[in-house]
Amino acid sequence: MSEATVDIHAIERELRQMWQEQANHPNAGGQAVIRALTLNLIVRVYDDEWAEKALAVAPVLTAQHPNRMVIVIDRPGDKTELQASVQALCTLVNAGRTQVCGEQVTISARGTPAGQLASLVLPLLLPDLPVVLWAPGPQPFTQPLVQRLYRLCDRVIVDSTTFADPVRELGALAAFEQTTNGSPAISDLGWTRLTPWRELTAQFFDTRPFLPHLHRIDEIVIEYAANTTINPVGALLFVGWLASCLKWIPLEDAVGIEGEIIRLYLRRPAVGVGPSAIRLVNVEIRPVQHSGEGFVRLSMRAVDNQQASFDVELIDDEGHACTRATIAGTAPIERTVSIEQPTLADLLASELRLLSRDRTFAAALQVAGGLARRCALH
User: InterPro entries given for it (predicted)?
Assistant: First the structure.
C-alpha cells in the first residue's frame, strides 16, 4: 500500500504514478496486482470521527466492490484549508495469489465552499461506472455538497440512525425520495438494519397454518433500544413496510403521542365480511433501556376470529432472540435464533449490491414518512 500527500491538481497524476510503480515493482510476496474498479463511491463526512469510520470500512468494501473511493471531509470553519492524499487499497483473492486493488482519494477540507469541493470531486469520477454517494449524518440533503452532487449519482446512501431530528428528517427523506422517483435511487442504512427482523417476521407466515393470521393482525408493539437518543425511525419504517405490503391505511387522526411513546392507528381490510369492511390496527412504539441497538421486542397479535400472537424478543446481548408463535387452543411454537448485528461495512456492502431502486423500501418509506410528518405536528 502506498500513500502520498499531493497538491489537489496533481491527484490524477499521482494515481497514474501509483499504478505505474505497482507495475514496475512486483509485490514482494509474488502476488499479481489487478486494478479492477466496479464503481465510484463518494463519501461526504463532516468530522474526524466519521472520517475514521469511512477509512476503516474502505478496505472491506474494496474486497467486495473494488472502487474508486473519494472521501470528502467537509468540516466547517472560517479559514479555508484544503489537502488531498491518494492510496491503493488491495485485498488478496485466489488463495493469496492475486491482489485486487481499488483506489482511495481523501480530500480534507475546512471552510471550503461546496462549489469548490464539487469541482474537485467531479473530475475524479471514472467514466462509464456507477456513481454512489454515501452521506451519513443529519439532514444529508440540505448539505451544499450533497445538493451539488446527488443528481449525478446512481444511488445515494443515508443513515437515519444518525439523524439529529429523526422524525422530521424521516418525513423529509420520504418527500425527497418521492421527488427523485428513483433517479437517483435512495438507500437508508437504518432500513438495512431492519432486515433480520423483517426476515423473522416473514418466516412466521411461511408456515401455511399461520398465513391467514397475517391478514388479521390487530395489535403491534415495538420496543427499541434508547440508551442515549430517542430514535423511532426504524419502528416507523417497519410499520410502513407492513402497511405497504398488507394495504393498511393510516387514519385521518393516525398518531397519538404520550411522552416518548408513539401510538399509531391504521385501518385494514376486514377478512371474510365483505370488500368494504374494515378493522382497526393499533400500533405502539416505545423506547426501552437496553445495552444494544435497534429493536428489542416485537409483538403482533390477531384478535379477529381465532386469536393468535407472534413475538420476537432479544434474550441476551449476544444477538440471540426467542421467536414464539401462539395460536389459541394450541401449544406455543418457540425457537431460539441469532439476530446478527451487521457492521457498518456489511451494511454498505449490502446496499452497493443493489442495481436499481428498492421499491419495497420506497413503499415503506412513503408510509413511514407520512406517519413521521404527523408525529412532528404533536
Answer: G6PDH_assembly_OpcA, OpcA_G6PD_C, OpcA_G6PD_N
How far, CA to CA in Å, does 4 sit from each of 51, 70, 84, 106, 119? 18, 15, 9, 11, 21
Q: Give the per-residue pLDDT at 204.
A: 96
Is residue 201 domain-shared with residue 105, that is, in the same domain? no
Interatomic CA distance for residues 283 and 157, integer angstroms: 28
Torsions phi, psi for 333 (to 5 deg): -110, 115
Q: Is 274 helix (H, G, I), strand (E, B) or coil?
A: coil
Cell of 48: 474526524
Whether 161 is in a domain gets the answer no
175 assigned to some structural domain: no
> Do 62 and 115 lie in a common domain?
yes
Dihedral over alpha carbons 247, 248, 249, 255 (to 10 degrees): -160
- CATH number of domain containing 264: 3.30.360
Same domain (yes/no): 265, 126: no
Domain extent at residue 242: 195-376
- Asked if residue 155 lies in contact with residue 353, where contact means CB atoms within 8 angstroms, the answer is no
User: Does a structural domain hold residue 359?
Assistant: yes
Alpha-carbon separation of residue 281 from 185, 210, 248 (angstroms): 31, 18, 8
d(C-alpha 46, C-alpha 109), whole Å? 9
Q: What is the pTM of this model?
A: 0.92
Is the pLDDT at 10 greater than 90? The verdict is: no
Tell me the C-alpha distance between 249 and 251, whole Å. 6
Q: What one-letter code names the amino acid at 49?
A: E
Confidence label for 22 from pLDDT (cuts 50, 70 and 90): low
Please work out, in degrees rounded to the nearest 5, the angle formed at the alpha carbon of residue 165 by the alpha carbons of 159 and 171: 75
pLDDT > 80? residue 28: no
* Domains held by the chain: number: 2
Query: Which of 119, 153, 187 represents a domain boundary (last residue)?
Result: 153
In the chain, the percentage of residues whose pLDDT exceeds 70 is: 92
* Same domain for 50 and 144: yes
